[in-house]
Write a structure and sequence with these properties.
The longest helix has 32 residues, at 114-145. The chain starts with 9 loop residues before the first strand and ends with a helix. The protein has one domain (10-217). The strands form 2 sheets. Strands 1-2 form a two-stranded antiparallel ribbon. It has helices at 23-41, 64-86, 90-109, 114-145, 150-155, 163-175, 198-217; strands at residues 10-14, 17-21, 48-50, 57-59. By secondary structure, it is mostly helical. The chain is 61% helix and 7% strand.
């Protein structure tokens, strides 16, 4: 761990679970926190569309109820991302990753657009399926090493996690929104209202950066 993410500055224990802060995880935490605050205080944009081949330009109106729900889901997505990047428990990491996938769908699910809702539904199916290898990977790690503590696994005091388990964790994260399944989100970006939609991309990036550290240290 000290060679990849830096030596832990602080480890906060909650019984068998823990949260740890290294230069790497703290940087990811700050990024997630900043964008969550921006989603909280920013006013959403009005989406403007132009008809191809004409001069017609019109703005799409989004109701207050839709924006209120999407703001809540964006904040929840940011909180889940913050939990995922600092947790020291592998099972909690998988829970936070699954929650990020759910909130990504929720950010756009309130938009009353047939194309957007159809894309959100399809992405939801992919994210739901991805939970199988995600939790299976954590389960195999627990069965083979006897612990889910990322700190213990990184210390070398317990057996190393099998390659197959780490591959399942990566596959689960890929299904939650990274390439190639990230293409399922493309139509979701037709939904009006930045910065809420931006949280979909940011959360996926943060989860990818964190799982890269996790699979390398366990």
């Amino acid at each position: 761990m000290s060679s990849l993410g830096g030596a832990p500055w602080y480890i906060l224990e909650f019984g068998d679970e823990l949260v740890y802060f290294t230069p790497y995880t703290t940087t990811l935490l700050i990024l997630a926190l900043v964008f969550t605050v921006l989603a909280l205080v920013s006013r959403p944009e009005r989406q403007v569309e132009a008809l191809f081949g004409t001069d017609a330009i019109y703005a799409k109106d989004t109701t207050v109820d839709q924006m209120r729900f999407r703001r809540f889901m964006a904040i929840a997505c940011g909180c889940a991302s913050m939990g995922a990047v600092v947790t020291g428990d592998l099972f909690n990491f998988t829970l936070f990753v699954a929650l990020v996938g759910i909130t990504n769908v929720g950010i756009v699910a309130a938009v009353k657009n047939r194309h957007v809702q159809n894309a959100a539904f399809q992405y939801g199916l992919v994210a739901l399926t991805a939970t199988v290898p995600l939790f299976a990977g954590a389960g195999i790690v627990a069965a083979t090493t006897g612990t889910l503590s990322i700190v213990a696994l990184a210390s070398g005091t317990v057996p190393q996690a099998p390659f197959f388990a780490r591959a399942l964790l990566c596959l689960g994260v890929v299904g939650e929104g990274m390439a190639p399944f990230y293409a399922a989100k493309a139509e979701m970006f037709r939904a009006p209202g930045a910065p809420y939609v931006i949280m979909c991309s940011l959360s996926s990036l943060l989860i990818f950066l964190r799982v890269a550290e996790v699979v390398m240290v366990i």
